[in-house]
Amino acid sequence: MEASKLKYFQAVAHIGHMTKAASKLNISQPALSKAIHHLEEELEIKLFNREGREIQLNEFGEILLEHVDRAFIEIKEGERIIKDLAGLEKGYISVAATFPHVFPLLMGEYLKSYPNVQIKQIQSSSTQMKLLIKNDKIDFGISTFPIIEEGIEWIPLADDEIFLTVPVDHPFSNRKSISLKETENERFIGLVEGYGFRDITDKFCREAGIEPNNLIEVEDSGAILKLVEMGYGISFTPRLSMLSEHPGIIAIPISFPNCKRTIGVAYKKKHYFSKASENFLHYIIDYFKNYSAEKS
């Protein structure tokens, strides 16, 4: 069974359209159709249900795709291990984070020490992160929600206080602290449902006995403080997000309920880690240890 045929099969299976898959693979559509046909002949079984040029996997195709995906991941990992052991690359790290807007601060000191390391960072929910870790798509997941799964290690790094943030001209701006109950008539700006931080803040509101008026919901967490500065509402903001300056807002400690989140790092126990990845894990543990010491 040729690897090229399996690669073609994988592309068609994921895209679900013969012509589009051929374009992505940079081959002609007839050549791709012929390769898929030969693969099915070799296996002596049909892998797709066809409707014109749109095709869908049948149950046999689903089984094969699962194993083909896994095989190509293992091949890629093998190449990575060999290159790392042979010293053919400076290092590569892949990280998913639930709070990407603070990632530049997190990476600043690390890149000073390891300027040639290649880093890939993606934004992900905790649920998506778990799948990425299990499937060896990333080295680490830095999350504000515990990732608990057999075969995955979760290391709590720091507790992070969550503030109420308001514009400088807001009636609450002179307060030393505030109970969430007092905000029940305020307009909130926050993340859309499905993000771990949204789940956490919704839980705090329920504890306070209020239903927040989520006037504006966004997917880009970095936009929230900008909207607060512009006077469109108030928001929940973790201390970690306040490390950079925001002169147009005031951060108010919340007296009730106790509003904190736990930041942690997760990784697959049997995942191969390059030397760069191992250094990065030690770095982020030390980074958050210093972060905890500074706020105490």
From TrEMBL:
One Pfam family from the record: LysR_substrate
Keyword Transcription in record: yes
Family recorded in the similarity comment: Belongs to the LysR transcriptional regulatory family.
GO molecular function: DNA binding; DNA-binding transcription factor activity
Gene Ontology CC annotations of this record: cytosol
InterPro entries named among the record's database cross-references: HTH-type_LysR_regulators (IPR050950), LysR_HTH_N (IPR000847), LysR_subst-bd (IPR005119), WH-like_DNA-bd_sf (IPR036388), WH_DNA-bd_sf (IPR036390)
All residue ranges annotated as the HTH lysR-type domain in the record: 1-58
Organism in which the protein naturally occurs: Oceanobacillus arenosus
Annotated protein name in UniProt: LysR family transcriptional regulator
Top-level taxon in the UniProt lineage: Bacteria
